[in-house]
Amino acid sequence: MEERILNIVEKKLSTFRSNQIKATLNLLEDGNTVPFIARYRKERTHSLDEVQIREIQSVYHQTETLEKRKDDVLKNIEEQQKLTPELAQKIKDAEVLQTVEDLYLPFKQKRRTKATIAKEAGLEPLAAWVLSFPQGDLKLKLESGINVDKDVNTIDDVLAGVHEILAEAFSDQADIREWIRSYTKKNGFLKTDIKSKGKELDENEVYAIYYDFNEKVTKIASHQILAINRGEKEKILRVKVDVDEAGIERYLRFRLIGKHTGNAVEIVQNAYDDAYKRFIGPAIEREIRSELTEMGDAQAISVFGENLYHLLMQAPLKGKIVLGFDPAYRTGCKLAVIDANGKFLDKLVIYPHKPAPKEKRAQAKQQLKNFIEKYQVEMIAIGNGTASRESEEFVADLLKEIKRPVYYVIVNEAGASVYSASPEARAAFPELHVEERSAISIGRRLQDPLAELIKIDPQAVGVGQYQHDVAQKDLREQLDNVIETAVNQVGVNLNTASAELLTHISGLTKTTAKNIVNFREENGSYGSRKELKKVPRLGPKAFEQSIGFLRIVDGNDVLDNTGIHPESYGIAKILLKELKIDLSTIGQSATDQILKNVNIEQLSHKLEVGFETLKDIVEELQKPGRDLRDEMPAPLLRSDVLTMEDLKPGMKLQGTVRNVIDFGAFVDIGVKQDGLVHISKLKKGFVKKPSDVVSVGDIVTVWVDSVDSNRHRIQLTMIPQD
C-alpha cells in the first residue's frame, strides 16, 4: 500500500476516519475477504459494513489507476523534453482521468494529420505569427510559406496549412476543452427523434415517447438513457447532444481573440470554429454520451444488485413437503415431489390442458390428487411461465376437493430452464429430462430460495432492468458481491450445502468447495468444524476466512451451529462461565433471558474483550442456528384464483413485489400479469427512488387503479383509498 495513494484516498473519503481506511486496506492486503472483515474484524475497522469496505477498496483501486496513469504521462512528456514545472504540477493535481488526458493531448503521438503535414512543410512559424495578430496586409508574409517541394503551391495552400495547425492547437488546449465540456454538460440537451425506417422496426411503439424527446443532460433519468441507447442500437432512434453554440462562440472569441483586431482575426476565428465543429464538439458529445451511459449502467446495476439481494434473502419455507409444478401445454406438466429437506422423491407427467384429449385431461386431475395424497404434499410451487395461468386454475380447483390445508404459490421460474440444462443439473439428476429437473428447481426455490437461486446465472433471474445492455464486467462484479454478501450473512449448513453454495462462502473456491462435498460423501457428515482442516487443499487461511460462516447442526459442539468464529470460542466459554451458564443450555429460554440482560459494555472491560466481538457472541448464543431470512416476509400462500376480469378500480388486494425498477415496482397480485405501482403511487409525498419504499419479496397491500385488458396492463397504487 503506497503512502502517497493512501493520503489521496483519505482526502476523497472524508466521511471515514484515517485509521478505518488504513486498517481496512491492510486487512485486504493480508488476504482477508470483505465478509470476513465486516463480521470478524469490527474492532479493527470500527464496525464498517461490507458496503463501506467495498467503497474503500474501490476508491483505492481507482486512485491507484489514476496515479499510475499520471506517472506514465509525466514520464512520456519528460522523454520528449517538454515537461515544464507548471505542467507537471497540473498533472499531479488532476483529480480525474479526463483532466490528465486533456493535459496529455498535445504531447500524444498522433496519426499523420493535415496539421502534421503542414508543420512538415514549415508552416508552424507562420501559424504562430498569425496568432500574434499582426496589423496590416498579411499577404507578403504568408507568401513566404509557399514551398513547391512540399506541395504548398499557392497562398491559399499556405492559409489552409496555417488553418489546420491552429485548429489542432486550439483543440489540444486542455483549458478550452474543459470549459466547453463543462458548458455543454450544464446547458446541453439530449435530443432524440425517429429514423426514417424507425416506425417499421418499432411495430409495438416501445420507443414512442422518444420519437420526439428533449431533456437536459443534467436532468435525464438513468432508465431513459438506457432506453434511448437501446433504441439507437436497434436503429429506431437518432440521438444527439444539442447545445446553444452562441455561448461557446462568445467564449472562444474572448479566449482566443480578445480585443485584438486586424486581418488575422478572421483566420483565427475560422480556425477555432473548425476546431469546435470538427474536433472538440464531437469528442465532448462522445464523452457526455459515454458518461450518461456509465451513469445509467451504474444505476441499473445498483437496482439489479439490490433486487437480487432481496430475492436471495426471501424467507425459506422450512419443513414442508413441496410439489414443484412446471406447466406446459402439448408436452404435459412436469411434477416433482421434494421432501422437507429438499431431497427429490418422485416425478410425474400429467396432461391437464388442451390439446390433450378430454380423457387425459380428466385423468390428470385424479393423478395429481393421488400424487398429493401419496406424499402428503403441503405446498405446491407453480412456475410462472407458459400455461401457468391455466395450471393455477387447475390446481386451485383441485385443492377444493382436498380436506386438509394445501396451498399453492406462484414461483418465478426465470432461469430454471437454463439451470436444468446445465452440466451441474445433469450431474445431479442424470436420469431426468430437462423439464423434470426444472420442476425440482421450482419446488426448491420455494423451500430455500438462496440455495437454489445461486445455481443460476443471476442475469437470468428476472429482477433487473436493461441488464443485458449494461457493462457486463461491472454487472458481474456487483452481482458476485451481492451473492457473496447474502450467502455469508445467512451462513450454510456444512452437512447439506451444495458445492455451488459453498463456492460463495468467504475464502472458498470452486475446488475447495468441491473437495468439502467430496470429503463429506466419502467420510460421512462433519461432526465438528475442526474436521474441515482435513479437507485436501484447504489451507489455514481458507479455514480462517470460511469457518465462521459454516454451521454444523446437531454436531459435537453447540458453538459450531453459531456465527461465533472458533478463534473466539475461548472468549465465549469464559463469558458463559462468568454468567454461570452451562453450554448444554444454550438455546433454552432461561439462558436466553440471562444473555438478554447482559451489560455488554461492562463485561467487555472486565473480560478485556472488544465490545463488538462480545456483542456478536452474546447475540449468537441467544439464537444458535438462527437464520436472518426468517425475519423476511413469508411467501403469499393462495388457495383460490383471481382473473383480470375480476379486477375493479378501488379493489384492495395483497401482492408480492416481483421487481423494483427506477420508475416503480411490479407486484404479483395473483393474476397472470403483474401490476405496476408507479413511483408516484408508492406512498404519499415525494419518493426519491422506489427501493426506499419497497423491496423484491415484500408482501404489500395495493389498490387497483386501472385495468387495460386489451394491452394486459394493470395500474396499482399503494396509497390507501378513501
From TrEMBL:
Top-level taxon of origin: Bacteria
The S1 motif domain is annotated at: 650-719
Q: Name one GO cellular component term.
A: cytoplasm
InterPro entries xref list: HHH_9, NA-bd_OB-fold, Ribos_protein_bS1-like, RNaseH-like_sf, RuvA_2-like, S1_domain, S1_Tex, Tex-like_central_region
Q: Please list the GO biological process terms of this entry.
A: nucleobase-containing compound metabolic process; translation
GO MF annotations in UniProt: mRNA binding; structural constituent of ribosome
Q: Which CDD domains match?
A: S1_Tex
One Pfam family hit = Tex_YqgF
Know the name of this protein? RNA-binding transcriptional accessory protein
Q: Which organism is it from?
A: Pediococcus stilesii
